[in-house]
Task: inverse folding
């Protein structure tokens, strides 16, 4: 086959044509340009170069041997390195896994641990701590949330040991520096969080930037209160008053006018988050008092020398004309129905607050503030 042609420039261009054995024919005019067939065959192999090793240990590739003879460069070291790389890098073990050796590379591939069988999973599940629902219920009954900056500041000053956990937004932390320091020193958990997370933790958007989980205070028995009472003592008795905002306003008025005891049906009502927040710190200056029943509590105070004073919107002695004793129990009921008949009949003195009559009655927290202000004026 003719292997030359002339281009436009008149120069001879040479083309090489593969023969049947995969080699290239040399230029018949010059005798040059041919390549050994073994080299070409070697290039067509699909395997990696590193795996082309001499299986018999004494034969290397033809191209490398020819090059060694022509250029004086030996091929044995390179072939040996290729052989070693083929053994250490490109081989696969009998199990089908890759047996590559990466030396000390930090990116070494780590195999996943084998999957545990059912028996191991059962053992692991059996070692998990079991949560007792009864314990959780009891814990929730013993704890409550308190929020609001003034309420939490007053609680920390009064009973820091009752704090279980705390949350703060970043903006209030400078004003709670002492609280944070105490919590850290006493290994109490606290979190500085975003407003949305504090809303979730406190259960309200009116958290004021801080929320505590605290241990509830229990109601003090009437007998114990009587052993500590002073010669001038006004106790407030609330029958079926449960609105937390009213309770908070009442506790705030009590703290302002020096009334320290509140006889209630359920002492935990005074520890609700909304009541404590509305009290603005006043909740820390009052103590819940509990008896066998509300009527029994009133009777115990009467036997101890206290005057039982009831209130009414339509009858009773006008407050401006009444003389209030130094030791008394002021009894108030809910706004809609007032005092029950049994509680009203236990009264030694009934009071009324005069006004225009344009409304049926005053809010119970407002009426409490007016009555306690008069007792404070006469007995302080």
Result:
């Amino acid at each position: 086959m003719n292997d030359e042609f002339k281009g436009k420039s008149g120069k001879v261009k040479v083309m090489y044509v593969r023969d049947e054995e995969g080699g290239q024919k040399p230029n018949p005019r010059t005798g040059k340009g041919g390549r050994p067939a073994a080299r070409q065959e070697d290039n067509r192999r699909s395997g990696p170069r590193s795996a082309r090793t001499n299986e018999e240990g004494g034969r290397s590739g033809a191209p490398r041997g020819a090059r060694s003879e022509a250029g004086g460069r030996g091929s044995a070291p390179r072939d040996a390195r290729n052989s070693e790389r083929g053994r250490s890098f490109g081989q696969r073990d009998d199990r089908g896994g890759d047996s590559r050796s990466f030396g000390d590379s930090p990116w070494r591939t780590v195999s996943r641990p084998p999957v545990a069988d059912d028996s191991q999973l059962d053992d692991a599940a059996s070692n998990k701590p079991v949560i007792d629902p009864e314990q959780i219920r009891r814990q929730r009954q013993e704890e409550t949330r308190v929020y609001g900056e003034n309420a939490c500041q007053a609680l920390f000053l009064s009973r820091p040991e009752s704090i279980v956990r705390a949350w703060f937004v970043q903006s209030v932390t400078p004003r709670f520096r002492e609280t944070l320091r105490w919590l850290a020193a006493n290994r109490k958990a606290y979190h500085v969080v975003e407003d949305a997370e504090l809303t979730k933790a406190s259960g309200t958007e009116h958290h004021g930037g801080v929320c505590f989980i605290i241990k509830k205070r229990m109601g003090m028995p009437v007998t114990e209160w009587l052993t500590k009472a002073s010669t001038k003592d006004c106790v407030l008795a609330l029958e079926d008053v449960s609105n937390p905002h009213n309770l908070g306003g009442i506790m705030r008025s009590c703290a302002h006018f020096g009334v320290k005891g509140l006889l209630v049906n359920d002492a935990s009502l005074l520890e609700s988050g909304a009541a404590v927040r509305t009290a603005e710190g006043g909740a820390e200056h009052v103590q819940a008092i509990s008896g066998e029943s509300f009527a029994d509590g009133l009777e115990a105070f009467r036997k101890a020398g206290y005057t039982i004073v009831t209130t009414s919107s339509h009858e009773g002695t006008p407050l401006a004309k009444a003389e209030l004793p130094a030791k008394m129990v002021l009894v108030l009921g809910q706004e809609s129905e007032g005092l029950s008949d049994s509680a009203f009949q236990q009264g030694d003195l009934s009071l009324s607050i005069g006004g225009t009559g344009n409304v049926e009655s005053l809010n119970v927290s407002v009426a409490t503030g007016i009555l306690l202000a008069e007792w404070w004026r006469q007995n302080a």
